[in-house]
Amino acid sequence: MRLEIKGLTKKFGSFTANDGIDLVIEPGEIHCLLGENGAGKSTLMNMLYGLLTPTSGEILLDGKPVSFGGPGDALAAGIGMVHQHFMLVPVFTVAENVMLGHEQTYGGGVLNRRAARKQVRELSDRYGLKVDPDAYVEDIPVGVQQRVEILKALASHAQVLILDEPTAVLTPQEIDELMGIMRELKAQGTSIIFITHKLREVKAIGDKISVIRRGKVVGTAEPSASEAELAEMMVGRSVSLVVSKDHAEVGAPVLKAEGITVIDPRGHVVVKDVSFEARGGEILGIAGVQGNGQTELIKSLLGLIKPDAGRIELAGRDISKHGPRQSLEEGIGYVPEDRSHDGYVGSFSVRENLVLDLYRSDEFSRGPALRLDAISANAKARIEEFDIRTENAETPVAALSGGNQQKVVVAREFSRPLKVLIASQPTRGVDVGSIEFIHKRIVAERDRGTAVIIVSTELEEIYALADRIAVMYDGRIVATVPPDIPRADLGLLMAGATPGGSTDGSEVAS
Amino acid sequence: MKTARIAAVATIAALALTACGDREDDGDNDTPKASDSPSVTEETSPTEAAEQFPDFKACMVSDSGGFDDKSFNQTSHDGMEAAAANYGVQTSEAESTDPSQFADNIQSLVDEGCNQITTVGFLLGDATEAAAKKAKDVDFAIVDFGYEAPPANLKGLNFNTAEPAFLAGYLAAAKSETGVVGTFGGLNIPTVTIFMTGFVQGVDYYNEENGAEVQVLGWDIEKADGSFTNDFEDKTAGQSLAEEMIAQGADVIFPVAGPAGLGGLQAAQDAEAFAVWVDTDGCISAAEYCDSLLTSVVKGMDVAVEQAILDSASGTFSNEVYTGTLENGGVSIAPYGPNADVDDELAAKIEELKAAIIAGEITVG
Amino acid sequence: MTAMSPAPEAITPDPEEGPAKGRDLRSWLPTVRDTLVAILLALAVGAFLIAISDDEVIEALDNLFSYPGSFFIYAGDVVRHSAGAVWDAYSALVRGAVGSGSALQRTLERSAPLICAGLGVTIAFRAGLFNIGATGQMLVGALAAGYVGFTYDLPPGIHLLAAIGAGVLASAVWGGIVGVLKAQTGAHEVITTIMLNQIGRFTVLYFLAKESFQREGSDNLLSPPVADSATYPTIAGLHIGIPLALVAALGVWWLLERSKLGFEMRAVGANPEASRTAGMSIAKVYIATMAIAGLLSGLAITMTLLGLQQSVTDQVVGSVGFDAITVALLGRATPLGTVLAGLLFGALSAGGLGMQTSAGVPPELIQVVQALIVLFVAAPALIRGLGRIKRRKKPAAPAVAEPKGATA
What is the pTM of this model? Predict the structure, then answer.
């Protein structure tokens, strides 16, 4: 099916999110849509999927104009979409999720689960999407959940598949598998619109690349274009993709963790006897595939969860019993892994979010009252310093682009003297321009003598920032390695294997 | 759509604006409209050559139960409607949703030019007294309340429901095969418990007279405590109380809990036990349970209200407290139910007891 | 890992969407517009109900169907009588609400408790708590304030303050229990507030059965009226509880927008996870919020008990406790909105009385109108949908697919 978009425009009041977009997606083509967060990619896709009504312009399928009243119409017309955040029911099985919305029934409303299972098996065989139809969605890894989303779209006979930032939540291995699936789909004639801001992926899989900036298509490129060229088109200026940093001036240990063990509410031991030191003036990168205990480890460092065993010391003092409030006051800066979950309050303004954990200090309050003047002045200063792109300080953070939301969180955490900075996935879902900026600030914080702990699932980020890399697998730190370890070896460590035949990963560290 | 919206806005705005302007006219408009009703009623009740008072306005304020409470508010309201039908008076009414509105509601009826205002329930006692002192040219009547020293224009309407309840208690004891009967109330308040007291006394009288030992569940006169649903609406609560009593052997149930008592009737019907209904004749107001009813203890609030209105309209109002008794017919027991199977002897006995109560030979309450 | 909501990145600024993305006054315009449309729509439905329940209209309709030949004559009658009935009812409504000094006084007297109790619901809303417990909080407040008010004999000013203090304190404790249960055990506040409403009522009944809470020589469940020395003083016929309600609204506004505690409440209400990560104590916020909500409910009941000099009964709260929820919803959980919604509901209540007494319209109609207002407010999409149907029809593009369930 050939999808053509002509002069598609979407206005929200005086704000033009999409401005006369023209695109053609040929059958069996992987069309990459590249753009920073907030460039208007999501608005465009939501119009294609019937979630938004265009202000003007046309969508044509095989030359016929169509208009969608909702996703149901779009699906029926053969357009499927896999959202960045999945729309699955966790307590349902894979097969149940796939049949959701077009359930087959025996007479009398009894669900025909067998047919659903059969359909899932057929589709997964045909496209090489390996899933167990009877597994519960909450039990399967993110990468497999994504396959379920793709299956859902295929089950409703989607011929054009929109993948919105599909790699943001995946491990390197899962990304490779996804690309394999995309190639298979393409081979069988499905067109794919692949939305991303990761240049490497675009080059790896795209047939055609369209770059969107500020609601307009600013150009098209071939996959052969260089990353620097693509980045420049995307951001509108030349960007440096490598963080320049001097050699670390490593100081004394600031944060010491000894034998940390965390048992989750379901009784699984998720952090197993983890010990490490974070030293002043050094960036410790904790690498690992999502779900290997990193989340729980850093939560226990801040005091969001109490470790079931072990001891945490900050500058020589035991802080194992501290709650988040005391930890923050002791000088721990904390950038959580999922900013929208616990990094900011979406309905709060930029101004308020910039003091979310500072409002109780004497600087921003007097007695029971807030000092609004000081809070406003702080907002003004931080917005300028961190180049937060917002209409004004009163804009709710939820209305900002992902990169700017992350800048709000980072700006807040960097705006007080820190002894330790703990940042988890500091640039997840952040556009290229903002990644550069956030990385620079992290390095600057290190150079000020702060002990920095970066948790990341992305190898790029680990390599860009870390002075020392601790690899987590299955709740343990399996190795601590220098930053010049080869990519392949690090990948193996993250997958739980030991490179070079060594049975004890920790030997690599020494 | 937009134009339609604007039109709607304009209409209502215009409505609102002009409404403020001609308040006086509007009051006048009501008069011819309301006075249509007597002509209608004259046709419907031609048999009664009753005196007509088309210029007399009788009004009523409910308590927070509202006029559709299937209980004393509604029965009192029936009395006002009967007055309108029989004597051609005009009517107006105000329902209350909470006690803070009582005073307002009475006042607004005074402002409407009511000649007589009936308030329903003891909760209105204070508000009615205060209003009566203020509006001296309006006659007031209050259902279920009596004052020791009422203002000259305020009449209390009380009902000695213990008297018919006594008869019902005697009847219940006589009809009980298990030797256990039960009663329960809506709330532990005098207007409810007076029924239960009369009922218990009737059973006791039966026991004394016949050397029987019929037991009453649900009300202890000495302790002034018993079984209550604590709610006049909750039929389920009434039903479970009654089922409990039936499980303890009761085969006659006497619920005094307004609509909640219907649950008691249901329980009696389910268990093929007897019941005695309250306030109105259950064979009319709760006809689906008529087969299970021995009789009903009728509290003639409608009769009393209608009479109070007639007295005011015809200028014979007095502030003397009215007490409905078996003697004056303000309270009574309803005809026996179809399955009550009251033999002549028992019927005669009940009549005898009634006469004895009227004569003051038996004191009840 | 499976997020059920669309990516926050996908939330594009939609000026048509709900309360205020930015917080300047202009951003409230759509909300104000939607609310006004909802009120007018509700009144329009009310007008329809008035018309079709009017005897003359029914008669005209009857004729219309019986003699379709004289369609125009009887259709004219229907229109004329409908207009007359609606006119009578709504002019009585307006007169009863604002048509005279006493009408206005009535409106204000009925608004004051609605505003205070509404504020209690509002403040809980902002902390993410759905406070259905105003009724129970008001009942125990009435019990305490009433007891002090009719039992003790104190000098006027002090007696009033003591009665208010007792009522407000009892209600705050009653509300605080909900906060403690939520914070300590995670018990959902909707369940606990509903349960505490029941418990509150039975507590009142229990005490009213005691001699010390009853009138001398009476067994009715009715306390003596509060002493004169414990009532709100009046200025020009209005008791000062009414300005007090406005002061309370101002206080709530200050608390929410200008105080540390309010900052914490709003943060916890919008994102408890982020609040905890930012070092806030969610337990403390829940307890404080519910205690303050209870306090406001307690203040509300003093408006009736001490302002209108009432007796304590189990009915004393009436429908105020539940109307408070609708007032807070209509007021979009803001202090100013709650004041305006409280005034509107007070006016409807007072006007409803006028409608009933002078136009014979049953008071249930006002309850229907109130419910419809909230329904239309809660479903702004419905209102906008009405406007959209026409627009959707215009582009007569043949949809390739069969549009199923075309109303999005």
Answer: 0.79
